[in-house]
Design goal:
CATH superfamily of the largest domain: FAD/NAD(P)-binding domain
Number of strands: 19
Oligomer: single chain
CATH architecture of the largest domain: 3-Layer(bba) Sandwich
Structural class: alpha/beta
Number of helices: 11
Helix content: 25-40%
Strand content: 15-25%
CATH topology of the largest domain: FAD/NAD(P)-binding domain
Order of helices and strands: EHEHHHEEEEEEHEEHHHEHEEEEEEEEHH
Largest sheet: 7 strands, mixed
Length: 378
């Protein structure tokens, strides 16, 4: 197949870019399983931290709010927003934009003769003038060093643990203290775990109702001021990042509070795991930094993600031509890498565009900037 634009990845950033590109007349093919990370790596019963104003449409037409209105759903009845509802919206959005999604994975991307060539897992090939890569966070899981000494299966990252029906009666250790750690604690407890210990180095976070509205003007300026984020003085970047951290990381969702009020959940702030070893019947003996010991059956790692673009399998054919800094691609003001015609967006773009682009909120802005650049090149 031959196309102007190939979008690799069909999550929020990929669908957003593909939808706007098609709407602006760019011949576009998207490759990937639609919202696969959300479907496969987020548990049933999970809620989103976003409001109904977060959406996928750079044109501002097929928004989440528009979907709720068409579906006769009152936004106040879905606060917080169930992950299942946003998936329904994503399907509606893809249909409305007539996005052509090939539900295959890209095995290898190359640029042999001035154009890109993607080889799919089924052997099919797609040639394209430009590529938008939206790898998401699947390949960026972060683990403490001590986990490597454990047998496979004893410690599981939150994104790989989405079913909890085998947790009944289990003693569970959760390492981490942000939203995923405490939401997984609630979900696992509700499935009948015997006891859950939540271990993290920082203090217990606040659980409050907060507003993310302060990020709106920063995301908007990304579309109107070329190189907006990188052009900010360093102290201003740090102040914005600090406020973003206070709202998004130091404060967790208020609706978790009643679900955590149980003798079956113990919070252990100011501690970390020093070592863990498997004993008989795969029981884990865990030593903490406060000298206490825990006997647990399962360990859940909720330590987030760290960018490592070189770990994305399909990029191996071009990665030597892409400048990388601290695991992030070096991007120009249009999300373009140092390999002409290759754009990278989403979490991988946060170094050059700000922390907002690790969230759905940044998807329409990213699509707007990239599609505008693509049109200027044609």
């Amino acid at each position: 197949m031959d196309t102007q634009l190939l979008v690799i990845g069909a999550g929020p950033y990929g669908l957003s870019a593909a939808g706007l590109a098609r709407e602006r007349g760019i011949d576009t093919i998207a490759v990937g399983r639609p919202m696969d990370f959300w479907r496969s790596n987020m548990p049933a019963g999970m809620f989103l931290r976003s409001g109904s104003d977060w959406h996928l449409d750079g044109a501002g037409t097929h928004t989440f709010e528009a979907y709720l209105e068409e579906s006769a759903i009152d936004p106040e009845d879905v606060d917080p927003i169930p992950v299942e509802l946003f998936l329904e919206y994503a399907d509606w959005f893809a249909d409305a934009k007539a996005i052509e999604v090939h539900e295959q994975l890209v095995a290898r991307l190359a640029k042999p003769n001035g154009r890109f060539e993607a080889t799919l897992e089924n052997g099919e090939r797609i040639a394209a003038d430009a590529v938008v890569a939206a790898p998401g966070i699947r390949h960026f899981q972060c683990f403490p060093n001590w986990v490597s000494k454990l047998d496979p299966g004893l410690a599981t990252h939150t994104c790989e643990l989405v079913r909890f029906d085998d947790m009944a009666g289990a003693r569970v250790l959760i390492v981490g203290g942000r939203q995923s750690a405490y939401e997984w604690a609630a979900l696992i407890h509700e499935q009948g775990a015997d006891h859950i210990d939540v271990v993290h180095r920082h203090d217990v976070p606040r659980f409050e109702c907060v507003s993310w509205k302060f990020i709106d003007p920063h995301v908007e300026k990304t579309t109107t001021v070329p190189g907006y984020w990188r052009g900010l003085p360093k102290p201003e970047q740090e102040a914005i990042t600090r406020r973003f951290w206070e709202i998004g990381r130091l404060t967790l969702e208020y609706w978790l509070t009643p679900r955590l009020e149980s003798d079956g959940i113990t919070r252990r702030p100011g501690t970390e795991v020093i070592e863990a070893s498997a004993g008989r019947d795969r029981e884990l003996d865990v030593m903490l930094s406060d000298s206490s010991r825990l006997a647990v059956d399962r360990v859940v790692i909720a330590c987030g993600y760290r960018a490592d673009l070189a770990s994305v399998p399909y990029l191996q054919g071009v990665i030597e031509r892409v400048a990388i800094a601290d695991g992030y691609p070096v991007l120009d003001e249009h999300f373009q890498t140092t390999l002409d015609g290759l754009y990278v967006t989403g979490f991988s773009a946060t170094r050059d565009f700000g922390p907002f682009f690790g969230f759905v909120k940044g998807a329409p802005a990213s699509a707007t900037v990239i599609v505008r650049d693509l049109l200027s090149r044609s």
